[in-house]
Amino acid sequence: MNAPQLTRNQALVFDVLEKAEGPLSAYTILDKLRDQGFRAPLQVYRALEKLLEYGVVHRLESINSFVACAHPGEDCHSHGIVAFAICESCGQVIEFHDHEVDHRLMSWVRSQKFKPAKTTIEIRGTCEACAA
Amino acid sequence: MNAPQLTRNQALVFDVLEKAEGPLSAYTILDKLRDQGFRAPLQVYRALEKLLEYGVVHRLESINSFVACAHPGEDCHSHGIVAFAICESCGQVIEFHDHEVDHRLMSWVRSQKFKPAKTTIEIRGTCEACAA
DNA sequence: ATCAATTGCGTTATGCTATAACGTGTGCAA
DNA sequence: TTGCACACGTTATAGCATAACGCAATTGAT
Ligand SMILES: [Zn+2]
Ligand SMILES: [Zn+2]
Ligand SMILES: [Zn+2]
Ligand SMILES: [Zn+2]
Predict the structure, then answer these.
(1) What percentage of chain B has pLDDT greater than the value 90?
(2) Nucleotide D16: nearest residue by CA–C1'?
(3) pLDDT tens across A14-49, in order?
(4) Which of A39, A71, A89, B127 lies at a 20 to 30 A Cα distance from B15?
(5) Which residues 66-85 of chain A have a CB within 8 Å of chain B?
(6) Distance (Å, rounded) from C-alpha B92 to C-alpha B70?
(7) Contact residues for strand C with beta carbon within 7 Å
(8) Which of A119, A124, A127 lies closest to B123 in CB terms?
(9) Strand D closer than 7 Å to the CB of B45?
(10) Residue B93 Cα, ligand 4 centroid: separation in angstroms?
C-alpha cells in the first residue's frame, strides 16, 4: 500500500515516531501529543492503524510498541518479511530483511498449505553498544 | 532448562494448556481454573512464568496467548529458534523449527555483534482446513 | 537446632494496552 | 439532493500484566 497524503492526526503521530530514538507505545505517543490537542487513545490507535496499512510504521508485537519504518521511500512490503533486532537495554531497533529467511519460511508455509497474512520476526537482546 | 517437579498451580495451568485445542490467554486459563480455587491473574502469570522458563510452554507474542510445547520430551531450546504458524480462523497453532532460518538469523546477529536473548517468529494466517 | 535465604502462594490494588459504541462534520459522487 | 465513505472527538469498557504486601514451607548453611 502506498501512503497517500496523511491527515493531520496521522501526520502528527508519524512525526513523533520519526523523531523518536526508538519504538514508542501508543500511550507514550498520546502523551507527546497532548499539547497538539490529543485527548484519547483512539486518536493514536486510529492514526497508527492507517500508518501500518500504508507501511510507513511497523508494530513490534513483543513489546507492544510502534516504530517508523527505517527504509523510507522503499516499500517495505515489497522486499519481503521485515525483521527486527530490539535492544532491551537502550531500546534501539534495527530493521532488516533477509530473503533467504523469507524463502525458507514461505517454503515451509507452502508445504503446509498455510496461507500467511502477517509474519513477525523479532529478536530481543543486547546491541553492540550496550553489550559492554 | 529442564522441568523439575511442578507445583500444584503450575501443574494445573500446564494441564489446562495441554488439553486445550489452541493457545489460551492468561485470563482464559484463570477462568478455567476457578473451580480449582484460582482467584487472581497472578496465580496464572506466576505459574506461566515458570512453565516458560522450563520450556514446556510457549508464549505467542502476537496474540498475547500461551500454548503447551508441541514437542514434549525434547528440549525445544536445544533445537534452535521455535516458530509458529497461527490460524486466525480456527486458532490452531503449528509449532516448527527450521535450522536454516536459525542459521541465517544468527549469522545476521553475529555480523551486527548483537547478543540475542529471545527470538520470536510467528506467522499469522489461515490453515489448510480453514482456507476453504 | 537455629537462622537466613529462597521459593511458592494468596490477596488487593493498580497500571498498561486496546477497542466498542455513539455522535459529528466534511467531501464527493450518483 | 441524497447517500456514502471517511476522519474525527468523546466516553466508556474490555483485556492484559505487574506492584506490593504478607504468610508459610523448604532448604541449606552455621
Ligand atoms: Zn520498514
Ligand atoms: Zn542497546
Ligand atoms: Zn516447543
Ligand atoms: Zn484454521
Answers:
(1) 86
(2) B64
(3) 999 999 999 999 999 999 999 999 999 999 999 999
(4) B127
(5) 83, 85
(6) 12
(7) A 25-28, 40-42, 45, 64-65; B 7-10, 37-43, 46-47, 50
(8) A119
(9) yes
(10) 8
Q: Which structural domains are found in chain B, ordered by start? A: 8-68 (1.10.10.10), 76-126 (3.30.1490.190)
Strand partners, B84: B95, B122
Average pLDDT over residues B41-67: 96
What value does the mean pLDDT take over residues B62-83? 83
Output the DSSP codes for B51-114. Answer: HHHHTSEEEEGGGTEEEE-SSTTS-GGGG---EEEEETTT--EEEE--HHHHHHHHHHHHHTT-
DSSP conformation letters of A9-65: HHHHHHHHHHHSSS-B-HHHHHHHTGGGT--SHHHHHHHHHHHHHHTSEEEEGGGTE
Q: Which residues of chain A have pLDDT under 50?
A: none
Which three three-digit cell numbers place residue A119?
Answer: 509474519
Helix (H, G, I), strand (E, B) or coil at A82: coil
Say yes or no: Cβ of B92 under 7 A from any atom of strand D: no
